[in-house]
Every structure is written in C-alpha cells, then in structure tokens.
Target: SUF system FeS cluster assembly SufBD core domain-containing protein
Amino acid sequence: MGSDAIIHLTERYGLQMEQATKDLLNIVSDWDGKDDGRTAFNIRENCASAGRASTEHIKIESKEDAPGLNIRVLPGTAGEKVYIPACITKAGVDDLVYNDFYIAEGADVTIVAGCGIHTETGEPARHNGIHRFFLEKNSHVLYLEKHVGTGFIKAKRSIDPVTEAWLADGALLEMETSQLGGVQTALRNTKATLEGASSLVIREHLLTDSDETLTTNFDVVLNGDGSSVNLVSRSVARGESYQEYHSNIVGNAKCSGHSECDAIITDHGKVTAQPALTAANEDAALIHEAAIGKIAGEQILKLRTLGLTESEAEAAIINGFLK
Amino acid sequence: MGSDAIIHLTERYGLQMEQATKDLLNIVSDWDGKDDGRTAFNIRENCASAGRASTEHIKIESKEDAPGLNIRVLPGTAGEKVYIPACITKAGVDDLVYNDFYIAEGADVTIVAGCGIHTETGEPARHNGIHRFFLEKNSHVLYLEKHVGTGFIKAKRSIDPVTEAWLADGALLEMETSQLGGVQTALRNTKATLEGASSLVIREHLLTDSDETLTTNFDVVLNGDGSSVNLVSRSVARGESYQEYHSNIVGNAKCSGHSECDAIITDHGKVTAQPALTAANEDAALIHEAAIGKIAGEQILKLRTLGLTESEAEAAIINGFLK
Model:
C-alpha cells in the first residue's frame, strides 16, 4: 500500500491514522487504495478499527461476542478482494482479534491480512490474530499474510497468528505467508481439515535475525478422497536466531500430501525441522523433504565473479530463496 | 546358520541346544559354524549361554555385575567375526541382556547379533538386548542384526533392542538391521554420538503384519567436524499393523546428515514418520526425506504382464524393497 493509496483512503473515507500505521501499511499490504467497488477492507490500528468498507458481495461486520470480524464472502463473488491489515504502533499493546471468514459455494476471493508492529521502546507489544476460514464447496481463497516488525531493534514484538481452515469438496485454499524480520518471538499455528476433493497450498517464507525465535506448526488432516496438500516452507535463520518447524500431515483417505522445509542458516542461526506424516489409509500417498544448510560456496563464488561482494552475494541468494 | 553349521557347532563344542534354538539360529545367523580361528561366538538360549568361544583377537567374557557380555575386539583385529545370537524358545521368558563392545583403535570386525523368539502359546516372551559400542579411532564395525518371531500366530513376542554407539575420530559403524515378521510388539531405540570425522551408516528393514506394532527411534548427534550419518529405513506395514518412525539428527559441527524413511502400506497398515533435523552449526548440512504409500499400480501391472498373480507381484516388489 503506497503513500498514494493512503492519501486515497484518507480522502475517500476520512480515515485518521497515525503516520506509523501508514508506514506499516506500506509494508504489509499492496492495495492501491482505490475504490473499484470490488474491494472490502477493515484497517485495525492498536486494537480498534480505523476504517471499514463492505462491498456488494463481501460483508464485514464486527463480532458481538469477541473482538474481531465476521467476513462473509457471498455467492457470486468473483475476483474481489478483502484487505484487513492490522497495525500496532506503540509498545504496551496486546492485541487479540478473532476474524472468521465464511466463503460461499463457488465464491472466489483474495484476502490480504498483513500485520505490522512498530515500537520504539523495549516494552512488549503483541498481535495475536485468530483467523478461521470456512470454505464451502468449490470456493477459492487466495490468502496473503505478511508480518513485520519495525522500530527499536531490541524491542519485544510478538506476532502469534493462528489459522484454522475447513475445506469442503472442491474447495481450494492458497496461503502465501511471510514474516521477514523485526519480530522477536513468533508462534505460528496453522490447522486445516480437508473434506472431499479439496486442496490446500501453503507457501511460507520466514526470516529471523539477532536473537529472534520463531516456531511454525502445521496440522493438516486429509479426510476426503481426492484431497491434497502441498506445503512448502522456506526460511533463513541469521544471527543467533532460532527456528522450529513442525508439520503433521495425516492421510485418512485416498489423498496426497507433500511437505517441504528448506532452511538456510548463516552466522549462528539454529533450525529444527520436524515434519511428521501419518498414512492411515492404504491409498494415502505422503511425502516430505527437508534440507537445512548454509549457502553453497559455489553459489557465492559465482556471484562474486560477477562483481558482487560476499555479503552482497549472500543477500542476493537469500532474496531469491525467499521470493 | 544352516543345519550343517549347527552339526559342526554341536560336534566341535559339545553344545546342547534345543531344536527350536537350532531352527532360530538357521534364520537369524548366517555363520557356517566352521572354526577358522577368526570367529568368536556366544550363543544365548533362554537367558543363559549355551556355548562360547573367544579368539586370539576377540575376547568374550561374562559381565560380573549384570547379565550379558563384555566383548573386546583387540588391536590388530582384521576381517574377524563375532556371532552372538540370542534365542528364546518358550513363552514366559523375559530376557534382559547387556552386551558391551569395545573396539580397539584400527580394528576391523563384523558382529552378528540376531535374535529369535519361538513360542507356541499366548503367554508373553520378550528379549531386551542393550548393546553398547565403543569405537576407538579408525576402527570399523559391520553390525548385522536380524530379529524374528516364529510359532503360534497370536503369541505375544516382544523384541526391544537398544543400541548405543560412541564413535571416535575416523571410526565407521555400519549397521544392517531387520525385523521381518512374527514380533507382536517392538520398541527399537538407536542412539549414536559421533566425534571427529567418524561415520555412521544405518540400513534398517522392517515388516509388520496382523496386529503387530513397532516403533523405531533414532537419535544421532554429530559433534565432530567431518562426521556424517546416512540413515535409511525401509518398512512394510501389512494387515492391521502400525509402525512409528522417529529420527532426530543434530548437527553441532561441520557435518553432514541424511535420513530417509520409505514405507509401503498394504491392507489396513498404518505408518507414522517423524524425522527431525536440528542444525546448530552453520556448517551442518542435513537432509531428510520420507515417503509413505502403497505399491504403484503400474509396478503391479508390469509384473502381472509377466505372468505373476497380483499377490505374487506384490510379494516380489516387497521382497525387492526390503532386500
């Protein structure tokens, strides 16, 4: 979301946002801010809504019994988008939000749910977003989630996302998620239950540095004949940072599952990968792969012969890896 | 160990063994029974030694403080063998044995440690062999371990091996282990600590059927620069059987680790694979792979076109897989 977009938003909807929120929106969201009648949004700033709009097909309402939103994507939705960025701009905030997404049969939607935390002191700040997705038959969701922390380098910023999804026959959920720096501790929990011939595709990109710690857990249960999951997690652990990857894929039907965890360690980074598979049906086909190591010397060498310094070469390789 | 071998043994050493022990030895051990001055052995039958011989380089002694053996493979050992089969021929036996192997610097030895249990009633019988290997610098051990149960099909036979190994710089431990049927419950624990540029190679082959359950755990810690582990476990789960595979490879140095778990499920077999990797050093390179599924239809079809029935084709593929 560029500064033009934010000007659009503030002019059109009269949004009052802190500069820090605007800066974070620049990072976590790619919306151009223009109203085309096909974009719903809710901007969350320090535990409250700074602005909201529904569309004909996408209805956003506050929950009555808990902080958060009910987002209803109605039948006939095609190619529309929902932006629900959440920003925390100061320390001392502990934000907890429950967002439920109800995706009607056959609907097709893109959901963008970035979260940014900016703090300038060592006091803790946390965002804990619990997102549940209910995908009806043959619906399609592209879910983009970008997490970032900015500000004081020794701050205690935590982002602990919980994602739970239920997929009906023929549904497709594609998740592209990333956390690319500035978050001191993160606990990422993703759960999905697939019925019928539904499909889940997850692409996760993670980068930790200094003394950051990150745990990412995936639990996927394949109950439907023809269901499938393809889970790829790529991560880089720099500095003294520590990452744990756990996945558990259970095949209870004629299904296919693939998980892949690739990690690059530099400096004194440490990574644990533990991807479990359980085949409880003769027709379940499950595969996983994991590789942890540093950047191959020959890759660095090749880029150095092109004129890059060693650190430039490393940065280029890591950028490519996390792209 | 064929019947000729057993005749040799009984004639030469005056061994008194039950027929059931002789039958089990046929399965778990490939020794021809001939004395060439280069083969040490101890045959364990229902918790006691039925016969023993040391050689010039390989000394077998009873432990004083626990059931079991101290086996010392002395400097200068080259191309010699130790056979230490253990047989249980009746229900109601709960055998616990501690065997320690001290392998001198530069020694080269093959150790064969099969275990067979034959029972004809439903009463439990168990063998729990705790084997510890201390490999001095540049020593080489080829360790062959075959486990089997025979007799009454609804018996409660358990074989719970514990293997622990410490490898010094330049040492190589090759383990070929198998459990190919007739064991109702098995808990297999293998641990190894590698110092210096030592290497561990493990090839495991498992088959379970009916309501058998099997858990195999591997913990490998790579402490030495240049150390490596290559762990391949292949298994088949038939009937209603259940298998769990866990491995944990920790790289604390400039090391390389590879683990692979391939499982075939037929009937209603169930398999869980959980291979963990932890890289705690920038120069650790760790990889794992796992695949669980049934036999590919095209493989069956190919063999059927050659005239095999479906079950013959399946048997041929499984035999090849576990070979």
Observations:
- Chain A is about 15% helix and 55% strand.
- Chain A has a mean pLDDT of 90.
- Residues 3-297 of chain A form one domain.
- The first helix of chain A runs from residue 3 to 13.
